């Protein structure tokens, strides 16, 4: 494969994907609306096409002009987008849809491709834009990929769990980095052992490329860190990357109520473990970045940014009330 079209490509996963493809000597074209800063604006290795991916005519024109070998669909949030793309790019060597671990509809440990049930998706959910239907819509996008493969399209799906790393606009990890950087004591919901599988963004980018090159049409591939960590361990890794020490203070639901808080107010908390099997992807030769390296790079990027995760802040004053109560127990 030589020519790649990235639908998206300037913000987070897509940005890292473009860098990954350039490192592997692809001719890269990005297709975006042009509403965000373009980190590749001055890079003559990247061709830019402006258009709305929900406009089939614009996407069809891109298909004709670029004639890509591989298409990476980073911003397909509705099933109709996937159906349109798999029709317009029916003749490419690889169409790779960025799905999500949220597509799984059954709580199993681990969640496996082709075994764990996907979320259902009603007609109303297909066109909804709320976060509540995100997993349903991603699951229906997966089903659109499978249907396209049955028609002979070389379509595949990649399902990341929670993605983190440099340029992460969600700022979920930034919240915890900021807490460790600013305070000696960090309040953690539960007993610190809850697990919500995460994926380092550079590993997601390499997974997308490898699936395009080696994946099987009609297949889905999970991607996530090969080493699982608890929330408590994550905070210790962040402290190490910051070259500081921190006291991790666990708080159960009853203690949190004293600050009018609940566990779900904190990023990365999940009452039941969310774990994806990554064996299928590893079977293609994919490897994940060592966890300490991924955290070190994420912390370094945080320090150079103005991100602080404030949108996820449950309120430090409320946390201090809980910490004060725990101190007297």
Automatic annotation (TrEMBL):
- The signal peptide, as residue positions, is none
Q: Which spans does this entry mark as compositional bias, Basic and acidic residues?
A: 298-318
Query: What InterPro entries does this protein map onto?
Result: Epimerase_deHydtase (IPR001509), Lipid_A_modif_metabolic_enz (IPR050177), NAD(P)-bd_dom_sf (IPR036291)
Pfam families in the record: Epimerase
Name the segments for region: Disordered: 108-138, 297-318
Report the superkingdom from the record. Archaea
Q: Where is the NAD-dependent epimerase/dehydratase domain?
A: 4-224
Note the PANTHER family from the entry.
Answer: BIFUNCTIONAL POLYMYXIN RESISTANCE PROTEIN ARNA
Question: What name does UniProt use for this protein?
Answer: Nucleoside-diphosphate-sugar epimerase
Q: Which organism is it from?
A: Halostagnicola kamekurae
């Amino acid at each position: 494969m030589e020519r790649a079209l990235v639908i998206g490509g300037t913000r987070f996963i897509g940005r890292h994907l473009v860098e990954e493809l350039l490192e592997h000597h692809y001719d890269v074209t990005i297709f975006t609306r042009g509403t965000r800063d373009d980190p590749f604006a001055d890079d003559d290795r990247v061709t830019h096409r402006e258009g709305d991916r929900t406009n089939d005519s614009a996407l069809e024109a891109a298909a004709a002009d670029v004639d890509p070998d591989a298409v990476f669909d980073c911003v397909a949030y509705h099933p109709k987008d996937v159906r349109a793309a798999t029709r317009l790019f029916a003749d490419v060597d690889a169409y790779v849809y960025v799905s999500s671990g949220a597509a799984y509809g059954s709580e199993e440990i681990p969640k496996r491709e082709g075994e764990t049930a996907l979320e259902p998706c009603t007609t109303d959910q297909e066109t909804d834009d709320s976060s509540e239907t995100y997993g349903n819509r991603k699951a229906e996008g997966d089903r659109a990929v499978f249907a396209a493969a049955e028609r002979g399209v070389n379509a595949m799906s990649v399902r990341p769990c929670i993605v983190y790393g440099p340029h992460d606009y969600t700022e979920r990890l930034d919240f915890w980095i900021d807490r460790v950087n600013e305070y000696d004591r960090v309040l953690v919901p539960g007993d610190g052992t809850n697990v919500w599988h995460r994926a380092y963004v550079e590993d997601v980018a390499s997974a997308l490329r490898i699936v395009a090159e080696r994946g099987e049409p009609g297949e889905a591939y999970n991607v996530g860190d090969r080493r699982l960590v608890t929330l408590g361990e994550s905070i210790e890794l962040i402290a190490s990357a910051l070259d500081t020490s921190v006291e991790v203070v666990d708080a159960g639901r009853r203690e949190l109520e004293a600050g009018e808080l609940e566990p779900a107010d904190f990023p990365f908390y999940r009452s039941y473990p969310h774990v994806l099997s990554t064996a299928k992807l590893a079977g293609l030769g994919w490897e994940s970045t060592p966890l300490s390296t991924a955290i070190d790079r994420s912390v370094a990027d945080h320090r150079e940014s103005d991100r602080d995760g404030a949108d996820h802040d449950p309120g430090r004053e409320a946390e201090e009330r809980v910490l004060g109560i725990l101190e007297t127990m």
